[in-house]
């Protein structure tokens, strides 16, 4: 049986497939660390050389390789789109790897790789396949379970001196320290923004989550959709991080973005100690992207099998995946780690990852907060937020506690990013990072302790790029049958205006430039051939505004 979303070659190509699958020439190199991992029963990554036979990449949305919302985000905030990233792994490759002894755990379309368990004496059989590029260990991170601060309460009276939109209760200290209350007073609460979480599990029955809007759940450990089916230890960490961002219980705890939408992925295994495996993280990131999320909050990290020299922004597997996600317009907010001067954890070393350190309420770095630089000498973290005694929900109904770690600073920042995107949805991940850095408390002399300093949400709001409002941009008629007028209220004089047309999968169709207030698109591609009926995205940029408009094109028969 052909698995949904995968490809199998036609029988006429069988001979060629056999050659690809059985070729022992130029066998993949097995790293010593991968051999050690297999001998210990730990999972390995098998990276492939290609996607298999060429196939059309048209209709990505229709084939459910990517959601319409994700396609729109890529078109408006991402870089040049490579649709082959979303093409599933060739099923004959998967079958061959399974036959060779690999028990597959996860598949990554973006990395063109699979992870799984393989007996050490079968490693050579995997490496002999001509389509296998390399075999590496799945990184695992062990650390002691976070120790909460049982006596911690926010400073008496903190945050009670000025009127606010919400009754923050004991969460007022962390909210006001990052100026999130000022954005709440501006009417921003995350509505319309979609945030993905990668964590241990979530106790969604708690009253702090009664109003939480959950648009999807996925358990990558057990292969189901129940993210709250384990004991309290398993759900503990994720419950607390989620409450900091999305919780809403007036008088006790208010999250930074309580009206946002949430996609919840369970990717971290817990036991007597925390055991985090990056293949689940990579799979969860792909799922979050596929739902069209705008932001991902990850309070996880990996350093087992990696040296400090590997944390250079392009070596660790999770870092590679995070950088690909950012290029697609998904803002990745990740904890720096709790390693202090021992350094960062992956993917916090990513150049385009928004890396979060922990501070006290005044912005002084916490002793445990991981310091940079990266292996290629870039400053990390990017910013810090309160990570000492952060008021969080526990898995028991009515239980709250102050907890410490970069894990709890991270969702505070992710929530602020949601408020900024609510105000200005066109912001790219790079623009968000730039404005947060430029307005943080240490912006004039960043360092590897606190980066650019303590996040200041209202300062960032005030520094948002001005003059790029989407309102006023129109396309007509809509639906259209042949030609389309694209109009704005602005008569460009000093610089031209531009428009780009994309499919909902993010594929470029046509680019144009115009002076004045309008331009005509004849519903053709760059080769002047008429395009088919369908839904298209028109991205317009004038010297004073920009916006994305959806267009329905219905050809006359």
Write a structural description.
With 557 residues, the chain is an alpha/beta fold. It folds into three domains: 93 residues, 2-Layer Sandwich (Alpha-Beta Plaits), CATH 3.30.70; 294 residues, Peptidase S8/S53 domain (Rossmann fold, 3-Layer(aba) Sandwich); 80 residues, Immunoglobulin-like (Sandwich). Helix content is 23%, strand content 25%. It contains 13 helices and 24 strands. The strands form six sheets. The protein has a seven-stranded parallel beta sheet, sandwiched between helices. A hairpin with a 6-residue loop joins strand 18 and strand 19. Helix 8 packs parallel to helix 11. It is globular, with a radius of gyration of 24 Å.
Given as residue ranges, the uncertain stretches (5+ residues, pLDDT < 50) are 1-5, 7-19, 147-151
Helical stretch count? 13
- How many structurally independent domains? 3
Architecture of the largest domain, CATH level 2? 3-Layer(aba) Sandwich
- Percentage of residues in strands: 15-25%
- State the assembly state of the protein chains: single chain
Q: Note the overall shape.
A: globular
Strand order of the largest sheet: 8-11-7-14-15-16-17
């Amino acid at each position: 049986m052909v698995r949904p979303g995968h490809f199998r070659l036609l029988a006429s190509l069988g001979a060629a497939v056999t050659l690809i699958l059985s070729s022992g020439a130029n066998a993949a190199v097995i790293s010593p660390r991968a051999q050690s991992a297999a001998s210990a029963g730990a999972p390995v990554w098998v990276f492939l050389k290609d996607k298999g036979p060429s196939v059309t990449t048209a209709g990505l949305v229709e084939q459910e390789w990517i959601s319409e919302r994700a396609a729109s985000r890529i078109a408006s905030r991402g870089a040049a789109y490579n649709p082959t990233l979303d093409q599933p792994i060739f099923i004959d490759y998967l079958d061959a790897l399974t036959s060779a002894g690999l028990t597959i755990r996860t598949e990554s379309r973006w990395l063109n790789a699979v992870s799984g368990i393989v007996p050490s004496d079968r490693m050579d059989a995997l490496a002999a396949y001509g389509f296998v590029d390399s075999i590496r260990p799945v990184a695992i991170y062990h650390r002691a379970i976070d120790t909460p601060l049982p006596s911690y309460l926010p400073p008496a009276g903190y945050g009670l001196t000025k009127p606010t939109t919400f009754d923050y209760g004991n969460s007022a200290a962390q909210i006001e320290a990052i100026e999130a209350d000022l954005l709440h007073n501006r009417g921003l609460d995350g509505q319309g923004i979609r945030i993905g979480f990668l964590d241990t599990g979530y106790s969604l029955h708690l009253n702090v989550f009664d109003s939480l809007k959950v648009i999807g759940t996925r358990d990558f450990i057990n292969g189901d959709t129940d993210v709250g089916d384990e004991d309290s230890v398993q759900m503990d960490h994720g419950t607390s991080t989620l409450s900091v961002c999305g919780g809403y219980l007036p008088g006790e705890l208010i999250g930074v973005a309580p009206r946002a939408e949430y996609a919840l992925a369970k990717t971290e295994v817990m036991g007597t100690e925390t055991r985090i495996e990056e293949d689940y993280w990579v799979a969860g990131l792909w799922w979050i992207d596929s739902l069209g999320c705008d932001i991902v909050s990850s309070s996880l990290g990996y350093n087992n099998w990696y040296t400090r020299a590997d944390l250079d922004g392009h070596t660790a597997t999770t870092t590679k995946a995070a950088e690909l996600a950012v290029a697609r317009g998904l803002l990745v907010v990740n904890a720096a780690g709790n390693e202090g001067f021992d350094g960062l954890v992956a993917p916090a070393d990513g150049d385009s990852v928004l890396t979060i350190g922990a501070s006290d309420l005044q912005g002084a770095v916490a002793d445990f907060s991981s310091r940079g630089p990266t292996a290629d000498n870039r400053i990390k973290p990017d910013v810090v937020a309160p990570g000492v005694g952060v008021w969080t929900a526990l898995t028991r109904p009515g239980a709250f506690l102050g907890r410490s770690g970069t894990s709890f600073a991270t969702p505070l920042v992710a929530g602020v990013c949601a408020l900024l995107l609510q105000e200005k949805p066109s912001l790219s991940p790079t623009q968000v990072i730039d404005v947060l850095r430029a307005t943080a408390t240490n912006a004039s002399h960043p360092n590897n302790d606190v980066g650019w300093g303590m996040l200041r949400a209202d300062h960032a709001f005030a520094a948002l790029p001005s003059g790029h409002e989407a309102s006023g941009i129109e396309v007509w008629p809509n639906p259209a049958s042949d030609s389309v007028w694209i109009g704005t209220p602005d008569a460009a004089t000093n610089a031209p205006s531009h428009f780009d047309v994309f499919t909902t999968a993010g594929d470029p169709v046509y680019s144009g430039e115009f002076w004045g207030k309008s331009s005509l698109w004849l519903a053709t591609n760059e080769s002047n051939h008429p395009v088919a009926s369908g839904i298209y995205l028109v991205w317009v940029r004038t010297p004073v505004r920009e916006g994305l408009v959806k267009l329905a094109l219905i050809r006359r028969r």
